[in-house]
Amino acid sequence: MQGLLLLLILSSSLSAQSTLYWDLNGTTSGAGSTPTGTWSSATSNWNSSFWGTSSTVKWTSGSNAVFSAGFDATNAYTVTVSGTQNLSSLTVSMGQPTFTGGTLNFNDTSPDIWTISGSTATINSAITGTNGLTKSGAGTLYLGGSAKTYTGTTTVSAGTVQLNASNILADTTALSVETDGTFSLDWGVSETIGSLSGSGTVNFRTGTFTTGNSANTTFSGTLEDSYGTFVKQGTGTLTLSGANTYSGVTTINAGAIVAASNTALGSSTYGNSIASGAALHLQGGIAVTEGQFSVAGTGVGGTGAIRNLSGNNSLDAALDLTSNTTISADAGTLTASGQVNLGANTLTVSGAGNTTLSGSITNSGALTKTGTGTLALTGSSANSFGGALNLNSGTVALGKTAGTVALAGSAINIGDGAGAASSAVLRLDASNQIADYAGLITVNTDGVLQVNNFTESINTIGGTGLIDLSTSGYLTVGINSGSSTFGGSIAGTGTLEKAGAGTLTFTSDIAIAGTLTLSGGTLALSNADLSAGTLLVTGNSIIDFGGTSSLDITNLTISAGVTLTIQNWATATDYFFTQFWTGATFNTAGSSPMNQVVFSGFSGNNTSWHAYDNQITPVPEPATYGAGLLACLVATTLIRRRLALRRR
């Protein structure tokens, strides 16, 4: 039965060249139980009969070599190759031959080494040829000794190919391991190949297995090891979609690895790295868990050292930046849940897709956001990085656990001044996300600070962009008594509070539909008109009218015992209107709350709220103005200014 099977194998697999069988038994049937001998053109160690019953002959160059004749060569034996022997294929049907010395030159268009189940072959001889090499059969082929310099693809279609020495395959070899095949390295052996593909098994044990050239390939099989190292080099892309179990580190020196399964990078380990110009790509809705990655650079073609290609994918690993680094999401959402250690470097997050960083971001580096997608800073651990947030475009959403710091850096820049209006948005997704000690928040012309119905306290703010208080948001400025100058606009019906001993200066006309709260310090109007739905004064405060300015309030409330001081106010130049004043009486002075408003140069007892125009002024009016003329002038000016405010 076994002989019949072998005949079928040989008839279906051997090329059209002549076939010779290794035979040291002469005309006796079989090759001998231990047929050790020399393979040369001068020795008659071959038989043209499958059974080994014919007279032995010399080797014919280019023939198919079968080891051995018959079925009696069951032991280990040595074949010494003399010089260079040309052959089309090599089949081991019995025993465990070791080939040593010389060179085996495969000159067939489809060279093949076949080891039948239960047999092994060890080739320590050199192997040459230009058409690659295919390992067939369920047996094992060991390669060691001299370098195997043949070119083309190495295909393991069945059985096992094991390398017993380091770096014996050509570095340019394309390795294809098919479903029934296994490619392995012996203990302590390392190897470099040109590319990897197939669906079989690769086991690199404790060695370093390096692959990669300019080709794009997919390996859907299994990568195994015993704490070895897997290295990707070359400009091509290697897609790993199988259930890999290797426990060693992954080093991406060039090109890209596409992780297309949860275990694409094996089991979790520390010491992985992505070099500058290289990349790790994720796709297909996967969750990759690793201990740590060292990351550098902007990836392949500037598309990101870590890049989300499609789907919602997660990477649970600490990321240590060794230089300025880019993470991008083309589509879907990339969630990185480990700690991000910036060092002194800048992390740029880009792309049209979304990115979530849910771990802590640490050290002195900076964070830059580009692209139209959203970067979400989430999780329960505080960010402590000391550099700036530069939000050039897209959205940064602050969604850490309420009260947990998402931003604490030296500066927060919303918009770069080059984009369309509202093309850069800093949005609160939870309350109290910005540290009270954080640096200046600058909202540029293309920027929006979106409170999003949450509560936030900041120290200083500037710029000419938009503050959106939303319907019920609460933004406090000056929490550490910082001074700010803002020349943009304010939207929404929420609350803006001026706190602390510093000064908040408005340099543009601003309409606050909600509430403006003054709890301390100075509100300065620099040639600016300010309107608000409600002005709530809860602490001793100053309003400074600089240049020609007006303050138009719908509802005014001043807390008991609090003084509002008005500075640099000039009659018929500056105006303070309110339609409703809690507890106040028209045309009355000398009592609370009217006397809680103190104009510089007057006492609080001189302050009155005029029924004819809703203006708050010190009285008596200057003698140069007749009451009627003054009322006419003020009423005319009031109408003009209110019309102007409505047009805005």
TrEMBL record:
The keyword Signal applies. Residues 1-16 form the signal peptide. InterPro entries: Autotrns_rpt, Pectin_lyase_fold/virulence. Coiled coil: none annotated. SUPFAM superfamilies: Pectin lyase-like. It comes from the Bacteria. Keywords: Signal. The keyword ATP-binding does not apply. This is Autotransporter-associated beta strand repeat protein. The lineage of its organism: Bacteria, Pseudomonadati, Verrucomicrobiota, Opitutia, Opitutales.
